[in-house]
Amino acid sequence: MIVKILNRSSQEFNGVLYNDKKIEKGKGELLKMKNFPSHINSSSGTQDVKNYLKAISKNNQRVKNPQFHATISAQGRSYSKEQLALTADKFMEKMGYGEQPYIVVFHNDTPNNHVHIVSTRVHKDTSKRIERDFEKYKSQSALQETIKELYGNDVLKNLEKIMDYNYSTMHQLQSILELSGYGFYKKNDQLNITKNGTLVKQLYISDLNFFEKSFDEKRKKQIFALFKKYKEVYSNSIFRVSDKNHTSYQSELQYQLKKKFGIDVVLSFKDDKVPFGYSIIDHKTYTIYKGSDIMKLGDLFTISSQVLDKKIFDILTNSNLTIETKNVYKKHLEQEYKCEIQDYMIFLKNSKKTDYNIWKDTRNSTIDYILNLGKVGGSSQDKIKIVSFSNETYIINKIDNVIFTVKELVGDYYHDFYLSQLLNPQILGQQSTVSGSIAAEQPSLEEMLKRSSLFGNSAAPQPSNEEQENKRRKKKKKR
């Protein structure tokens, strides 16, 4: 995780307005309102929240910039919004804001989950200024302590594990430090290692004896055999992933080697030029190899000239794509971002439901978005896209980057029931209004979704207990 203190001067608490606009656009969600009086709650307007924070701040006119506005960001979807809310609470406590009124708003409009926190630097009881000297440094330390307490992520302990890896060059050591989320810089004879901008360890380069590291020749042969086999199974086409601040080279082969065997393949390159070499980080034996010692770069990979924006790459790698859904999702992203995505840029998962709880949560949130599609003032239009592809209807949740079939959302019974209504629309009852217009007499399944018919029509008969039991027995026999 990374924390940033946003220092834009604001006596009007424009951070509240900024986050409220995100919520209105469906790109934000209010997670917490702490230490506000009972009459100011999640139902209150933006102005009420701002006025309360301003009223507290006016008790100390010497504080010229009373707004405290911070963000805590996770890499990709590594932390859920619930975890980030918990992190925000603990973080604010360590920063001295535990008793202060503050809001926590989750943003979902970037590939990285993150929250915004807004409060006042004037203490609500004493009217004294909350200490802000060395605030940025203090925030880094507070976040590190919070992560350690909540998730057992001991930065120094993890660093010690990394230092136990077998490596033969400084470049190899730096590769695994970078891969593990550590920063580093050399100063004189010292290697300074950082985490989230905070210095965590200093090592004398002269004390790093690279030549005493030992390498298992048998393991090198095993890795060679894995490379030879799986480069024929998965795409070995390397493509560049980049944005203004980041460049890397990726391939499906790299993804699967890491996932299946704990082997990271890190390519070496300068600027935007093609890779000239690579390192192998074997997490099974805690060893880093020079790639060419096992297989030449040209024999392992085919280097493509294609470039993919990092935002789209992050969406693809954090989605639940399978063989059945990849083509429709690819088409959706190409239309949404006006780009071209090659098949080898899509790394498929083995299952849509690798984590049932996550799958269940995103399914439920997708249903909620659909239920709000036809409502006046609803903001679900930016969250959901319903598409037809190869005689199937798919629902794309653009917030969580997941795609569902209708059956996954409503189950086989209701899916079949409403398909039968397509053939006999008279039993649908009265027509519904969608976006101010009357729906067609024979609505498509997509139109029924937009009208929330699949979820909100009480005319749908419930399956009897006997039918449910027969269905359960059939499933049991199949297993």
What can you see in these coordinates?
With 479 residues, this protein is an alpha+beta fold. The protein has four domains: 2-151, 2-Layer Sandwich (BirA Bifunctional Protein, domain 2); 155-212, no CATH class; 217-345, no CATH class; 356-465, no CATH class. The protein is 37% helix and 22% strand. The chain has 16 helices and 19 strands. The protein has helices at 14-24, 46-57, 81-94, 135-151, 155-163, 170-179, 217-230, 252-261, 297-300, 310-317, 326-337, 356-371, 406-423, 445-450, 453-456, 465-478; strands spanning 2-5, 28-34, 67-73, 102-107, 114-120, 182-187, 190-195, 198-204, 237-242, 247-250, 263-268, 277-282, 287-290, 302-309, 384-389, 392-397, 402-405, 433-434, 437-438. The strands form six sheets. The protein has a five-stranded antiparallel β-sheet, sandwiched between helices. A three-stranded antiparallel β-sheet has the order 6-7-8. The two termini are 42 Å apart. 26% of the residues are buried. Residues 427-442 and 457-462 have low confidence and may be disordered. Residues 455-465 have a biased composition (Polar residues). InterPro entries: Endonuclease_MobA/VirD2. Pfam families: Relaxase (PF03432). This is MobA/VirD2-like nuclease domain-containing protein.
